[in-house]
Structures are given as structure tokens and as C-alpha cells.
Amino acid sequence: MLESGNMNRFAKVGNFSSYCRCVKSERISNGKKKSKTNGIIATKTVANKLARACYHVLKDQVTFDVNKSFS
Fold this sequence. Notes:
- The chain is mainly α.
- It has one domain.
- It is built from three helices and two strands, in the order H-E-E-H-H.
- A two-stranded antiparallel ribbon has the order 1-2.
- Strand 1 and strand 2 form a beta hairpin.
- Helix 1 packs across helix 2.
- The longest helix is centred in the last third of the chain and has 23 residues.
- The radius of gyration is 14 Å and the shape is elongated.
């Protein structure tokens, strides 16, 4: 919360996810796309869900509801 600052500086939840480095990125080397393993993809997916939940909790000043996060 202290590191991200005021949540109103992020126009959308996707901007906050990007700030947290939880969005899809492509790794290209020598013109070839490098693939990621399934474990890394799963970890990034969960991290993105949690970043989105954090955004809404901090912006709206509400308590965390796990039912809203993983529905």
C-alpha cells in the first residue's frame, strides 16, 4: 500500500496490474518467441488476480472478499 501510493493515479485496474508486472509479456530473442512453462503461467495468472483484488480493496477502501476474487 505504501509503495503503490494513491490508487487514483491508475486509470484502470489493468494499469495497476501492469505496474505490479502481472500482465502478459513476450520474450523474444533473435527474432524467435521464447515460450514459458506452465508453472510460470499459472503463477502469473494467480498474481494478476490478486493484484486486481488489491487494486479494488485499496481504491474502494473495502475488505477483501475471496468470493469476488476467484469467481
